[in-house]
Amino acid sequence: MDKYVLVEYLSSIKTAICETFKHTQRIKLTSFDVSNHYIILGTNSGGIYIFKRTPCEFLRLIPSKEGSTVHVKISPDEKNLAVASARGLVIILENFFADLNVRPLLFTEHEGHAITVMKWHGNSVYTGDNNGKIAVCSVHAKLTKAIFQTPSSTLMSLDSSIVQIDTYKNYLLISTKTRTYLCDTEKEQYKQIGKKLRDGNFGACFSQTDFSDHFDGCEGVRKAFKTIEGEDSFSSKVSNDVRLYCSRPGARLWTANFEATVLSTYQFRNSLNVQSSDLITIESAKDTRLRVTKFDEIEISKDFNFCKVYLLYKNIIMTYDNKGIYFFNVEKNNIVCWSHAFDNIRDVKILKPHIYVWRNDLQINIISLQSLEEIVINTLISKQYLLCSDLCVQFNEEVFALIEKSKKINLISILRTKLKELEENDLLGKIENILNKLDEYYKDQTVGLKFENGIVLVENQYSAQATTLPENIESNFENLDTNKDLKILYKQYVLNKTHKLAELTESSKILTNTNLDELPSLFESFIKYVKDKSEEDATLWCKEQLLKFVSKSLYNFDQLKPPTVEALSRYFLDLNNYKTDCCKCGFPLPRAHKRKLDHYNLASKLFNYTENKQEYLNNIPLLYKINACELALNLAKITQFSDKEVFKKVLFTMTYDKWDDVIKLYIKLSQCQCLNCTETIDIDGLLTWTELGMLMVESIGPKNANRLVTRYAQYIPKGELKQEFYQSCLFSMTCPNQGVAVKFVEEVRAAGTSKMLGDCLEQFLQKQHSGLQSPHKSITPDSNIKCSYCQISISNPVLREVKHCVCGHYYHQVCFKSHSSICKYCVEDTNS
């Protein structure tokens, strides 16, 4: 039986929440939700507080006039937010984060009743109330449906208050206080599961989770669902592996199928006499040590019942009540873990592997149920070597037993080296039995495999002396006894000493014909080969060759073994360490965005694949370019990074007030002060006032940009606002698209014809001032024609000089004369 442990992760979430609400004693939390990037808090004032999930920090407040919130629910794609008010109203905020002037959609199906449940599925949110009504509200309704049907409707009116709703494909599983129903949203029908009634807050869930974001379900549905009675068919094509779990009184669970037929009953009453689980507390620091809290309770109370139920892992069901939280193994019919360490629980949210537990008002704990193998390996990968060793001591027998069953546990062999480096000899002695067992068990675990070309692959699953490759995989690499290949690679190695870019056909062929998952092992063998042959360290060369090879290929990392991806990641970070592009506090310096990075496309793929993005950003701050939307959440950081292209990616999120804050930060940064720690920094690469101004023109328009520039004119050095800024302001007022106007001015500047554009603007202003209007020169009456180069209308009142070519193309005079890329066959029409 797998050993599971209950873990609490200490975080800054409580501090961030308390800091936000410390001056608002009358505001109380009434609801919460958690997603990949956000923590959403609803309050009795109706305001919605949005926090960044990790690291936890307050982002923004969305006010509401609809009264206290009882539920908040963020959509799976994190674009839309559903809010239930105490008045029974459902409010949906579309694009709630991107659109700062979000206009709420209001639905009144539950008005006058208490909404008890909300559940997103695709673009629809299902709601239930204390009167038994089930409704659906949809966003992004298809145009044809939106014309003829309302995007909300009442689906069912059931017998009692709704306790829980779960979804799977086109099915709803609805649990009321007395019954459980299975609903088919495609057939618009539902059927009761089982016949025996109950009375209480009993929940239900599916045995598999459907994460589809593209389910269209009840979008536009108007009709109420029909009930299927008795033995009537409720057939379905859903896999037989998917089951339905329904809570029953007396610590029981029903399991049912998609015919709404009860298959069996699990009785857990006899499993409750198990002592409360120990609680392991983990901090993020590298040198943290094991903290275990023990509890004296020897069994769960006899009046225990399942309430709401949630699928945590395969066969693992979680439930909670006011006293604590409980985990059951349905397959083995026993309790896995339980604890009353977290009482007064008001709600929980699961974001695997974490469980967010909301208690009382401002208290949110982050816990996790993990297998012993999982937590040992995770602490090892996080380089918490002391904590990993402490776990091996605490669970010595269990870890010892994992050696013959786990494919990963051999990774902890690196602890022998690490503990010696840390001079933790006493701790090393306590886990010596485990490390010795690893040596003994893997010593003879080799498998030979002969390829058609005669190469023999020898799989050595463990090597106590391997220390040159990344720590979390170094003891798991294979060895290749391929003398011929090693000799060819050695020729390439010697050649690259004098001709860095030269490539031998033979060596390229070896790399191409070798499976990528096997390449780290090949290079490991080569490092040893070179060491023996010439006493040189070829590790750096091997890392460069592997990254170079992978960069040329389009590999899907999901198809690679985790150790291979980890090796690529570690190699890349080893060879690209640009911590000097950061301030001592970790904030990126302005010059970071100018860094030229080898294998940038590979870096992008690795960065998007890894879960530990912060390590990449700390080593290579240039990668903030990839993380633009995340960077925009921190105005100080995006200002100090000072990359024009990153700003352009997030212009849609920037408001007048945000630009006002950016200018204040920019003024401070111009004085060589880090915006995070105020230390003196190098500001090489900082945006110019002109570039900043043109970004504001593109984002909030020329009038607002001018207002801000005028407001802070005293801080702008004379001559820092170049003519391009003023040209952008004037020209954008004549274009329907500010971005197009700014881009045009930038291209004109690059072509060296800013004076020509300036003359055009001067003529335009003179005519505007005098009130005179004259027809365009060399232009047809059709104002829909666009310049073949810049795609701006040839009837633009500033660019009045137009050239008509014999081939039929039209160009603004500015575009025609300043851009050599215009087709050489385009000749000026002499009659124009």
From TrEMBL:
Single GO BP term: developmental pigmentation
One GO term describing the cellular component: cytoplasm
Domain of life of the organism encoding this protein: Eukaryota
Domain HPS5 TPR: 513-677
Xref: Pfam families: Beta-prop_HPS5, TPR_HPS5_insect
Record domain HPS5-like beta-propeller: where: 17-361
Name used for this protein in its record: Uncharacterized protein LOC114331637 isoform X1
Organism: Diabrotica virgifera virgifera
